[in-house]
């Protein structure tokens, strides 16, 4: 007779647990992530981390679920989400002969980032440089030297942490997993990320996790990915990536398959703030850098780009035709002015009902996007609002392969459209490109755009001025009428 394994729930508490416990009740929780990594779990099991606790270990899920019975790594209790840190706390300090302003600690693994009270210190490459630079660090031959912003480590009541683990969580060759309600903080040492999904991993859901202070990317879906792979990122927050200033490595999310290109990534209800802090190589880091498969990107808010961020969404590499980007907000706010969407691969991408506010470039179709053999277009742009652009509303580097209509434009430069090698006003753009017959230049009458409220006021030209593109609900989860379509991310 077959044995039926019932789903079990396991508890882990970094402060009150013991690995010798059963782990199957809140009163007898495990203590370490290492215990989880060694355990054999079964489909449907739940592994719950206690809220308010912190772990400085790498999570490596050891087992797979099956269809309909995901293995879930989640939370229990009250308070702040469970924190998984990629850094180690520094508590032992020594004085440095001839440099009273410095303190030294033994650290065998070279950190690419060191934090003082959660703020990244400047990296120096010589002892003389760190001596002369308050708020900096220098590592050499297993010794870490720090000059504090004020006072000295060990006596100035500040907390110091150094990046040590390559990844905070690594999912490899596992299927049907849910990672939810965890906080990945100070993630990744050199080449590392907060959460890495690699190789033959499939059906992975990342839900309502927080990602902050990443040395490189927050989330990477990489490697020899399987055919028909599915990955969902929902309700997460992404803040400050690329802290080690390595060119091109600081996007919040990076997707690249060296295996099958038949993968699908869905991102919805996520928030991005200050991603791409790379001063060394501007404009190479993005909200999501999508280089393989199909992308469904909806109901996300990109709010305030990093100091030198690139696009909120970049489609590149071997991305497949027909990516869908709809009901998102691309909002530079008080930060820099990044690009909204940069498309340089695939054809037939649908860009519907988004808001682009205070950006450098709203949508940029590079010269790599041209109609495919079947006559498909590079991108289709409908029902969007472009409010305030420093350079372009739409930049089409090749004068072909683009469809644009039923959009509202407001407050751009004199010639905010590029068609091939030429730059045009709205009237000339319509004449030369043949686009935007039903679009207008007008104030969309948002409620309060400077504070991120992009709902429509009474009398907005966006009300009932769009076209039915087959979508059923807006950014606010309100039903969209097929006969009465509003332009922008919010229905009136």
Count of alpha and pi helical runs: 3
The CATH architecture of the largest domain can be given as 3 Solenoid
Give the number of DSSP strands: 43
Quick one: CATH class of the largest domain? Mainly Beta
Query: What is the percent of helical residues?
Result: under 10%
Number of domains: 2
Largest sheet: 32 strands, mixed
Q: First CA to last CA: what distance? A: 60 Å
Instruction: Please state roughly what percent of the residues sit in beta strands, choosing from under 5%, 5-15%, 15-25%, 25-35%, 35-45% or over 45%.
Output: 35-45%
Radius of gyration, CA atoms, in whole angstroms: 25 Å
CATH topology of the largest domain: Pectate Lyase C-like
Mean pLDDT: 92
Task: Assign the structural class, choosing from mainly alpha, mainly beta, alpha/beta, alpha+beta, or little secondary structure.
Answer: mainly beta
Q: Outline, from the CA principal axes? A: globular
Low-confidence stretches: none
Give an overview in words.
- The protein is mainly beta and 492 residues long.
- It has two domains: 89-163, no CATH class; 169-456, Pectate Lyase C-like.
- The protein contains three helices and 43 strands.
- The strands form four sheets. It has a 32-stranded mixed beta sheet that branches. A five-stranded mixed beta sheet has the order 7-8-13-12-11. A four-stranded antiparallel beta sheet has the order 6-14-9-10, with no helix packed on it.
- A hairpin with a 2-residue loop joins strand 9 and strand 10.
- The radius of gyration is 25 Å and the shape is globular.
- The mean pLDDT is 92.
């Amino acid at each position: 007779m077959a044995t039926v394994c019932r789903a079990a729930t396991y508890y882990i508490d970094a402060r009150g647990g013991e690995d010798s416990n059963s782990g199957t009740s809140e009163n007898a929780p495990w203590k370490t992530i290492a215990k989880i990594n060694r355990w054999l779990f079964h489909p449907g099991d739940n592994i719950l981390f206690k809220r308010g606790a912190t772990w400085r270990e790498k999570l490596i899920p050891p087992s797979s679920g099956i269809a309909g019975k995901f293995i879930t790594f989640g939370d229990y209790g009250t308070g702040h989400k469970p924190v998984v840190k990629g850094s180690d706390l520094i508590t032992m300090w020594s004085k440095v002969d001839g440099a009273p302003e410095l303190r030294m600690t033994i650290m065998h693994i070279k950190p690419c980032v060191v934090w003082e009270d959660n703020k990244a210190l400047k990296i120096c490459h010589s002892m003389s440089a760190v001596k002369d630079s308050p708020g900096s660090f220098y590592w050499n031959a297993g010794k870490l030297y720090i000059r504090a912003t004020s006072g000295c480590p060990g006596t100035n009541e500040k907390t110091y942490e150094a990046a040590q683990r390559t990844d905070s969580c690594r999912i490899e060759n596992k299927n049907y997993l849910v990672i939810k309600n965890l906080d990945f903080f100070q993630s990744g040492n050199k080449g590392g990320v907060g959460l890495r999904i690699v190789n033959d991993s499939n059906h992975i859901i990342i839900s309502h996790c927080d990602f902050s202070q990443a040395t490189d990317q927050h989330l990477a879906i990489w490697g020899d990915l399987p055919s028909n792979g599915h990955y969902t990122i929902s309700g997460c927050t992404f803040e400050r990536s690329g802290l080690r200033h390595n060119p091109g490595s600081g996007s919040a999310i990076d997707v690249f398959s060296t295996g099958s290109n038949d993968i699908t990534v869905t991102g919805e209800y996520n928030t991005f703030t200050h991603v791409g802090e790379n001063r060394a190589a501007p404009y190479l880091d993005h909200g999501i850098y999508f280089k393989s498969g199909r992308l469904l990107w909806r109901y996300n808010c990109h709010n305030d780009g990093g100091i030198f961020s690139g696009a909120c969404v970049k489609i590149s590499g071997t991305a497949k035709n027909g990516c869908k980007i709809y009901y998102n907000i691309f909002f530079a706010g008080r930060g820099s002015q990044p690009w909204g969407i940069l498309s340089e691969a695939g054809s037939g991408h649908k860009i519907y009902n988004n808001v682009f506010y205070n950006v450098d470039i709203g949508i940029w179709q590079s010269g790599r996007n041209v109609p495919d053999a079947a006559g498909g277009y590079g991108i289709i742009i409908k029902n969007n609002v472009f409010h305030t652009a420093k350079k372009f509303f739409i930049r089409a580097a090749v004068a072909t392969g683009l469809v644009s209509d039923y959009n509202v434009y407001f407050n751009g430069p004199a010639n905010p459209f590029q068609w091939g090698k030429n730059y045009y006003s709205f009237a000339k753009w319509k004449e030369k490109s043949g686009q935007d017959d039903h679009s207008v230049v007008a104030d969309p009458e948002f409620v309060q755009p400077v504070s991120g409220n992009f709902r429509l006021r009474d009398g907005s030209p966006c009300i009932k001025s769009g076209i039915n593109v087959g979508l059923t609900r807006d950014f606010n989860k309100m039903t969209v009428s097929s006969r009465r379509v509003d332009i922008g991310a919010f229905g009136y």
